[in-house]
Design brief:
Elements: H1 6-9, H2 12-29, E1 32-34, E2 45-47, E3 50-51, E4 55-57, H3 59-67, H4 69-80, H5 83-96, H6 98-113, E5 119-131, E6 139-146, H7 153-169, H8 173-178, H9 184-199, E7 205-209, H10 217-226, E8 235-240, H11 251-262, E9 266-268, H12 271-276, H13 279-285, H14 290-294, H15 299-306, E10 312-314, H16 319-330, E11 335-338, H17 350-360, E12 370-373, E13 380-385, E14 393-409, E15 412-427, E16 441-443, E17 445-447
Parallel strand pairs: 4-17, 7-8, 8-9
Antiparallel strand pairs: 1-2, 3-13, 5-6, 5-14, 10-12, 11-12, 13-14, 14-15, 15-16
Helix pairs in contact: 2-7, 5-6, 6-11, 7-9, 9-10, 16-17
The protein binds adenosine-5'-diphosphate (ADP) and magnesium ion (2 copies).
One magnesium ion is lined by residues 144, 146, 342.
Cofactor: Mg(2+)
Binding site for ATP: 144, 279, 338-347, 349, 372-375, 399, 426, 432
Protein name: Glutathione synthetase
């Protein structure tokens, strides 16, 4: 287990005192969330959950994650431009998954009518864990890529200052000074502003779609406040911070989605890019030859991308699918079973994974899932600070996300950037779950 901060981790009095200071620093810096009870007003807000101490991240893996981000931007872009690939890859999924099928239907319809806009704005976040593996030195392994509504670019830009303050209070001034500048919200806003500019109408606005329940309003405001205030009605850019789960849509919402998709507005993301972020597509990318076909003449990108992949398996109605199901039932702790869903809390592990596979193994329903090797990071100790929760030391693992922004104009990629990172940390007893799902907390990487 990593021994970072071991001189203070077990000093209870010190930890109590510093935790109180850390919470105040979080409130001051704006690491905020609305409460569950009052999710749509800001009369009562509290700090968003965060770690007391920054977590160790191997610098080589951190650099690797940044270095591959532009490749992932290229890859998502290439997939979204490749209707044949999407159709072929999602063919079995859309037979059994109504939500993906509905998205796909809109995708087909706008292609048939011809796209009204050749500008595309992509904002994604590629997430990784540091697999401990057998050799002992950790490896960067991708968990997933989020191509719609990737969150926490705002709040993560503010956690660094909190952790810097905490380290300074603890007398660790040298360590504090090494924490890196990180402002992905600024990068996201830059992408949106650039797309707006290329759209080319002074009176047009950016349309920001948010969920009914708006606990994470402060994260979104960070991006919004980086943009200019404008009047008018014409929409230049549609920026989705919802629309990725079935409950975001009723019949009218599906009609609105089609309307926006058919419009001249720049969509972030357009529906093809959203589909490019499905777990099924991620699994298909791991098949031999797929990356090479999508990114021809780009062997370096392909090698960097492939190095971050762990084992991913289709559960098609064939011998290979049967074999993987038998393997997973025999050794469920080796795998994660994933449906085509976003937002945390949807995956299946251990006993649940086994039960679901036993129940669906003879039905086409099994093809709505993919199977993935479980990434097993080395745990480390930290304190997870949450409003109204007792302070206790926890064994934790971290997930690093890198934000990517790109813009395509017709055939040209006019922007392709990485714009910052997000580190989220959770207690090892939770298999799944992000910050919004109440499991992980915000963190800052401390490079080792
Ligand atoms: P979502 O789109 O719902 O965020 P993810 O694929 O990111 O779906 O899975 C949710 C969480 O489950 C991750 O944040 C991570 O904690 C855990 N998880 C997902 N895949 C793996 C894996 N292969 N190994 C270990 N943990 C995983
Ligand atoms: Mg996701
Ligand atoms: Mg995720």
């Amino acid at each position: 287990m990593t021994a970072l901060w071991k001189d203070i981790l077990h000093n209870e009095q010190l930890i109590q005192d510093v935790a109180a200071i850390a919470v105040d620093a979080a409130l001051l810096e704006g690491v905020l969330m609305r409460t569950e009870e009052d999710s749509n007003v800001s009369d009562v807000v509290n700090f968003a959950p965060f770690t007391l101490l920054p977590s160790p991240v191997p610098s080589t893996l951190f650099e690797q994650a940044y270095a591959v981000q532009q490749d992932f931007n290229l890859l998502v872009d290439a997939i979204s431009q490749n209707a044949e690939f999407l159709e072929h890859t999602l063919a079995s999924t859309i037979q059994v998954d109504a939500f993906t099928a509905q998205l796909f239907k809109i995708h087909k319809q706008v292609l048939k009518e011809g796209l009204a806009q050749s500008l595309i704005l992509g904002i994604n976040r590629s997430d990784y864990m540091f697999d401990h593996g057998e050799e002992g030195s950790p490896a960067l392994k991708q968990v997933e890529i989020n191509t719609i509504a990737a969150s926490f670019a705002g709040l993560t830009s503010r956690t660094t200052a909190v952790h810097r303050h905490v380290l300074n209070i603890l007398g660790k001034t040298k360590e504090a000074s090494t924490l890196m500048y990180n402002n992905p919200a600024k990068g996201l806003a830059m992408g949106i502003a650039k797309a707006w500019e290329l759209y080319g109408s002074d009176r047009a606005v950016v349309m920001f779609l948010v969920e009914d329940i708006q606990r994470n309003i402060f994260d979104q405001r960070c991006v919004e406040n980086e943009l200019w205030n404008r009047d008018g009605q014409e929409v230049a850019v549609v920026y989705y911070r919802e629309g990725y789960v079935p409950k975001n849509y009723n019949k009218q919402n599906w009609e609105a989605r089609l309307l926006m998709e058919s419009s001249k507005a720049v969509k972030c993301p357009d529906i093809a890019t959203q589909l490019a972020g499905t777990k099924k597509v991620q699994q298909e990318l791991s098949q031999p030859g797929t990356l090479e076909r999508l990114l021809p003449n780009n062997t370096e990108s392909v090698a960097r991308l492939r190095a971050t992949f762990t084992g991913l398996y289709a559960l098609d109605m064939d011998k290979e699918g049967d074999k993987m199901i038998a393997m997973a039932i025999a050794d469920p702790d080796r795998f994660v079973l994933k449906p085509q869903r976003e937002g945390g809390g949807n995956n299946l592990y251990g006993e649940n994974l086994k039960q679901v596979l036993e129940k669906t193994k003879d039905s086409p329903e099994r093809t709505s899932y993919i199977l993935m090797d479980k990434i097993k990071p080395q745990p480390m100790m930290n304190y997870l600070l949450r409003a109204h929760s007792p302070l206790k030391i926890s064994e934790c693992v971290s997930e690093l996300g890198i934000f990517g922004v790109y813009i395509r104009q017709g055939k040209d990629l006019v922007m392709n950037k990485h714009v910052g990172h997000l580190l989220r940390t959770k207690a090892v007893e939770h298999d799944d779950g992000g910050v919004a799902a109440g499991v992980a907390v915000l963190d800052t990487p401390y490079l080792i």
